[in-house]
Specification:
Mean pLDDT: 88
Helix content: 25-40%
Distance between the termini: 52 Å
Strand order of the largest sheet: 3-2-1-4-5-6-11
Strand content: 15-25%
Shape: globular
Low-confidence stretches: none
Radius of gyration: 23 Å
Largest sheet: 7 strands, parallel
Number of strands: 19
Number of helices: 14
């Protein structure tokens, strides 16, 4: 059958896509930026890709009329302060276009909504569900709370908190109860719902077998990692202070931290989980879900990560808009070195950042990351999804990968740190030499002052970095 998949570059979409392809379905992937979509070659040959912006009604006209079903796996949380209005526009455009097709079913992944007074985030997700259900098709909504899996936002935030803080002075919302679910079970339920008449025009809460407080989840994680941790709850921490606490300790952005704190005050426990009687799942416990996640991490098999989503960034752009590095009116730091071993240099480039670091003056990079956090930037804590694989759209610390091609020996990064301008860092191997270029397009006088203030450090950091990259050892 022909299945439309929105959010194909997202955390869940990347995991659902290979399942749909493996089952023999014809999948049409809707992405906003084709350059950020990098499925395996075996999958790429079996799918169709449409570049669609849900905020632009005209782009949706590309959707074929003869689709059988569609997955709605997009949301705008943290992309801007008015994400609820953006989500409203997106879903209205989507519904209007699908009403002109032969689609039989739309499947939507939402959040559990248990209280009359919902957070802005959950209220927006509920509104999307309401709008989707107005369409001329059968609508199925799966409402999840905390999703646990390698690379999930919930997993990474819990991991950051537990592994970095032996003692936590935490806000009272850590006593809020939730019902976490393994990402593997989410994918099983999403696929099992496809054109399943038993779930038509229904909404289901989906969760695992454990009901835990956030505090119990943190302590459960510490147990799984054999770490001794102490958590003390204080009632005086306001939502804003809680957001700052989450933002500085974890790799999340401040805007996302605010949305999460707002939602974490509300219990997310399943009320109607009858879907488990319809679709058989493994029903992994919290500890089992953690174990599976660590198995994936240790074997470098992380399929998708929330950090590679622009939700982890302060920016919201198409890679195409920045892939051509400007030359006019820009400051540049150009360096080159003779390459001793091309393949060795490429291997080093493809492992840059994250746990590997930046090869020289890493302590200065860390200070720059901390300074970025202080002014509301992303900092260095995002790291990277894979230690040795880079694709366009990936996050590497406070950089975004615009282009990565091993055969060409070219890697192009764009800065997502807080800057009075725009910055690129490019590595290119030509004729036995490694060319390293840092480009800065300043905004106003402040941008120029910034460039001259950091320029002395470039000679130390960039010179050492390119020397290490070009060396044979």
């Amino acid at each position: 059958m022909k299945v439309l998949l929105t959010g194909a570059t997202g955390y869940i979409g990347k995991r659902l896509l290979p399942v749909l392809v493996d089952k023999g379905h014809q999948v049409i992937c809707c992405v906003r930026d084709k350059k950020r979509f990098n499925p395996k070659k075996s999958i790429l040959e079996k799918i169709e890709i449409l570049e669609i912006d849900l905020l632009n009604r005209d782009t949706l006209k590309q959707i074929p009329e003869d689709i059988d079903a569609a997955y709605y796996l997009v949301h705008s949380m943290s992309s801007s302060g008015n994400y609820d209005k953006l989500e409203q526009t997106c879903v209205e455009n989507f519904r209007a276009q699908l009403n002109q097709t032969k689609v039989k079913q739309v499947i939507y992944l939402s959040g559990i909504v248990n209280e009359d007074e919902l957070s802005k985030h959950l209220g927006s997700r509920k509104n999307v569900e309401t709008e989707l259900c107005k369409g001329n098709y059968h609508c199925t909504t799966l409402r999840a709370g905390i999703i646990i899996g390698s690379g999930s936002a919930s997993f990474e935030i819990i991991r950051d908190l537990v592994e970095k803080l032996p003692v936590m002075i935490a806000p009272k919302w850590l006593n809020t109860k939730c019902q976490p679910i393994a990402v593997a079970d989410v994918i099983t339920l999403l696929y099992g719902s496809l054109l399943n008449e038993a779930v038509y025009d229904k909404s289901f809460d989906i969760g695992g077998p454990d009901i835990l407080t956030y505090k119990e989840m943190l302590l459960g994680f510490s147990k799984a990692r054999n770490l001794d941790r102490a958590i003390f709850i204080v009632p005086v921490m306001t939502p804003r202070l809680s957001s700052y606490w989450l933002y500085f300790v974890t790799s999340t952005s401040y805007r996302l931290a605010m949305a999460l704190v707002d939602s974490m005050k509300v219990e997310v426990i399943c009320k109607n989980d009858d879907i488990k009687k319809i679709i058989l799942i493994k029903d992994y416990t919290y500890q089992q879900a953690l174990k599976r996640a660590f198995t994936k991490i240790e074997s470098n098999e992380i399929v998708s990560s929330w950090k590679d989503s622009f939700a982890s960034s302060k920016l919201n752009f198409n890679i195409s808009d920045f892939i051509d590095v400007p030359t006019h009116g820009c400051f540049k730091d150009k360096r080159n070195r003779k390459v001793q071993d091309k393949q060795k240099t490429i291997q080093k480039l493809w492992r840059i950042g994250g746990n590997t670091g930046w090869y020289y003056g890493t302590w200065l990079w860390k200070i720059r990351g901390y300074m970025d956090k202080l002014v509301g930037g992303v900092g260095l804590r995002r790291g990277r999804t894979s230690p040795s694989i880079i694709t366009s759209g990936d996050a590497i610390d406070f950089w975004r990968v615009l282009y990565a091609n091993k055969e060409e020996g070219r890697l192009l990064l764009f800065a997502e740190m807080k800057l009075p301008g725009e910055a690129w860092l490019e590595f290119r191997i030509n004729d036995g030499k490694l060319y390293q270029t840092a480009t800065f397009r300043a905004k106003g006088i402040l941008g120029r002052l910034y460039w001259y203030s950091v320029f002395p450090f470039h000679g130390f950091v960039f010179n050492g970095m390119i020397s290490h990259l070009a060396a044979k050892e």
